[in-house]
Amino acid sequence: MIKVEHLSKNFQDLPVLKDVSVTINKGDVVCVIGPSGSGKSTFLRCLNMLEKPNSGKIIFDGVDLTAKKTNLNLHRQKMGMVFQQFNLFPNMTVLENLTCAPMMLKKVPKAEAEAKAIELLGRVDLADRADTYPNKLSGGQKQRVAIVRALMMEPDVMLFDEPTSALDPEMVGEVLDVMKSLAQKGMTMVVVTHEMAFAREVSNRVLFLDGGVIAEDGTPEEIFGNPQCERLKTFLAKVL
Amino acid sequence: MNAWLLKLNETFIESGGYRYIIDGFKNTIIITLGALLIGVVIGSLIAIIKYFAEESPKLKPLAWLCDLYTTVIRGIPITVLLLIFYLIILVTASDLTVAILSFGINSGAYMAELIRSGINAVDKGQMEAGRSLGMSRAQAMRKVIFPQAIRYILPAIGNELIALLKETSVAGYVAIVDLTRAGNLIRTNTHDAINPLALVALIYLTLVVLLTRLLGKVERKLAKSDKG
Taking the model in full, what pTM does it have? Predict the structure, then answer.
């Protein structure tokens, strides 16, 4: 589904990603772990071209997103993204946050978009918050709305950039539960996370990034049960 | 007291001076509002061009021109600018047109910065969220960024309006009877300096106080609707 070929990214002179190649298959739930500064978030943001790679290719559903003539806006509709800081639109109600993009970009009729929004909100226990503004929601509620906002576009893959890192501890669970049920429904997901328990339980594949390269790539059992490289062993000793 | 009222009658009524004041007031308001409108249009255009030029290399030369415009205009005193337009560039235009254009073009350079910093004050994550959903830069700007930026921009434009109102008092340099010149003409005709100047000052003061109050109300309203 997403094929990353020889991806490199520098910030000014600082190399953040060095010649990363990896293939993410349909139905994969990939957790990306690693120490801070290892390039996890940059890697994720390159997948939907929020960061422009310096070299390499991102091939999504057979289309090279790095090619100049590619209509990025069209392909981004198929890649939902959830941010650490939620990034809900504060000038819109929850319902407007959800219906805005489908109505504008896919010309979904208002009534249809709203019905769908209410249904999805129900699934994350927020049906009664449709008409509130984001600033009236808790962090956990905001992030659930943000997940639903991305789902409204019916994406083929969901990208999560540390979705629970800005949350109070007691709200982490409610967001992870939503992500878990999404994974169980077969959504392809790439999740940058520090939640090792989530990575171990929910993902079918874990990428360990360190120093801008994928230092290890395996099933959760392999990564957590039988780490090969020293850096991963050191990292796991610190976080587990 | 009676003597002062008689003097007022002599200065403003008998000499026909009140007509200058009415005309001057009218012209001051026309120049201020006209210049504000032109300023907002130019300022918005520049702000938008510079915003999109950050990502689009094709717009770079245009952005460079905008920079040149703001640098030149902000470096020249408004009185000099007014004289340049009056005596060199717009010789055939009516006095009022010259004044409106000069103040408008001057104001546009400042508005551009106000609008740009309003846009930049909106969190970067907002644009990213819009883009991640598939919106173009222009769509995200219209639907997401600008409605939030307006909260920062409106009060700043209000302040610019107040500054503009007072700045127009140099319009008399190009033969326009604005409020200030009206007072001056009455002084020349009646040899009464205190009363015309006091009246003119009072009118400016009243206008500024009223505008400041209005602005305060708008700001409070915007703060209330701040859903951040």
Answer: 0.87
